Amino acid sequence: MDQLIFAAEVVLNGLMAGVMYALVALGFVLIFKASGVFNYAQGVMALFAALTLVGIQNGQVPFAHLINAAFGTSLHHFGWTVPSVLAILLTAGVMVLLAFLIEKLVLQHLVGQEPIILFMATIGLAYFLEGLGDVMWGADIKTLDVGLPQGISDTVEQVTANWFGYGFFIDRLDIWATVIAALLVAALVAFSQYTKQGRAMRAVADDHQAALSVGISLRFIWVMVWSIAGFVALVAGIMWGTKSGVQFSLSLIALKALPVLMLGGFTSIPGAIVGGLIIGVGEKLFEFAIGPMVGGATENWFAYVLALVFLVFRPQGLFGERIIERV
Amino acid sequence: MIYREAGDFKTSYRDDSQTFPIRLDRWGYYITLAVAFGIIPFVINDYWANAVLVPFLIYAIAALGLNILTGYAGQVSLGTGGFMAVGAYSVYKLMTAFPEVNIVIHILLAGGITAMVGVMFGLPSLRIKGFYLAVATLAAQFFLVWLFNKVPWFYNYSASGQINAPTRTVLGHAVTGPAATAPAKYLICLVFVFVLAWVARNLTRGTLGRKWMAIRDMDIAAEIIGVNPLGAKLSAFAVSSFFIGIAGALLFAVYLGAAEVGEAFGINKSFLVLFMIIIGGLGSIFGSFAGAAFLVLLPVLLKNLLVGGLGWPTDLAAHIELMIVGALIVLFLIVEPHGLARLWSLAKEKLRLWPFPH
After folding, report:
1. Which residues of chain B have a CB within 8 Å of the CB of A307?
2. Which residues in A lie closer than 8 A to residue B267 (C-beta atoms)?
3. Band of the pLDDT at A7, cuts 50, 70, 90?
4. Would you call B150 and A135 a contact, using CB atoms and an 8 Å cutoff?
5. Which domains are seen in chain A, by residue range?
6. CB neighbours (10 Å) of residue B276?
7. What does the domain layout of chain B look like in residue ranges?
């Protein structure tokens, strides 16, 4: 019975972790659907967004390190702090600018290339952004606090203690992340279903040329999609950054989202969510049940191996469109 | 004026199909070999061996291996670091278990073991392709690194979790361990590079290479004209992993001397080798060398320039290096998706017509 309750707690925590994975995976799916680009840089975008947010909040001078090294000055802070809401808005603005630049400087020149070339270009982009983030804001580990509640939720602990005689430990941040992720998904679905731009986006995803022929601007849609992905990255960056500090390892959440995508299918928003939940629960349960026998830290690879095994049987993922090939 | 086919008469099929059809190229090749084998070993010092030449040679082998898989057979792999780790840990286990056997045999065996592991992780390539496969090879990367980290048998239960290369000799000269001299390290790597590049060149222009390229260009069409995708894909994984395993074994035993798996063979190593073949040129033997040289030299140059020349802090230089490498990758993909090798062959085309272009 105790084991069962422990397992239930593990599952619950896994679900919450899964929501976080789904949040990152969502950014991938959006870009992939609209432009056919598999954006490896999504995780680094989350890191970059979080770094920018912290930098703006604390009034850091961008490129301070570089300017100091080049001109022998000792700049580091403007000496003011910016309120969280304003900082988030400013960061969103930076992400839109970034999306515009990426479209202008990279994607525009790679139209019509093979998907794998585009994929490798986004790996290059990821390296560039990682370097840029560090040069702009410094590479030290930063704490991010935008006023989200943290710590163990007392309410959940008391309620479960009354029910089962054992209080579940659940981070309040995880609960908030789940709520925010759910809201974000609902907003995105509403956006793509009920607004003009959203419909245009779906049209582009469906067929580039047909969309062009009815007068939809591909460039505008791409900038928009990358901006939305940047915004999703910002939300993911806030969540993960609050949870474990803003540091390089934040960009590795992208790697965690990849198996989620393979499982859910690259083209499906519900797939990203279900995939995220399966991976979140799966890896926590595996670590709980099998981990101690093999030395632990199985979370590093379990998701990949699960996705790999799964793909051998269903190459297009759970909800992906069927892959049809013609010669 | 001198870079011409004219006057260089081919009187047999053998002559006609040689690797370097132009006389000047052939001379260049022989002179390069003569310098590499005959002069450099006598003038090499520790700095040049450790900072430039030995890593260049080792990464050239890894790039050749990945180029066979990605450039020739079209199967993108992000598991290079993991496969290099297999090579490194195999050679370590062999070196410590059978100290009396020659290290060269150990390195070759390590390549063989890596080839088997590579085929195992290559199996999904029969069902999935493109970046689904690229992501699937990440499974190999993470699983293998975890395995070597968590199973003490692989690092002989050492307290630090590190592996250390004991001293081994070839023809009486130490090539691994602290006693190894710069010329010895350089020469052992050079011999492997020479033989493996020769093998790669001749494999890729033979039946096997043509099968790989057919699969790369369109696998369904290749299957219809009679290429067995199972054989072609798995052989590409096997040969590629063999090369990468040897590169990993040399990297650990000869170059690093001591290694910790997560640090030496992490995901960044996979990307580094992938970048080498993108910048050098996908599907080109020369490109593997050019890309390896470029990405080995770039950090050394940048470090000398930014840290040595301008006096900037090293961490800033490292971040700027990341930016430059990333930007270069994007730039190369936009301007010249076939990399340095393509630029080189364009230059040669121009040279053949020079000075009368019309």
Report:
1. 135-136, 139
2. 255
3. confident
4. no
5. 2-313 (1.10.3470)
6. 29
7. 39-265
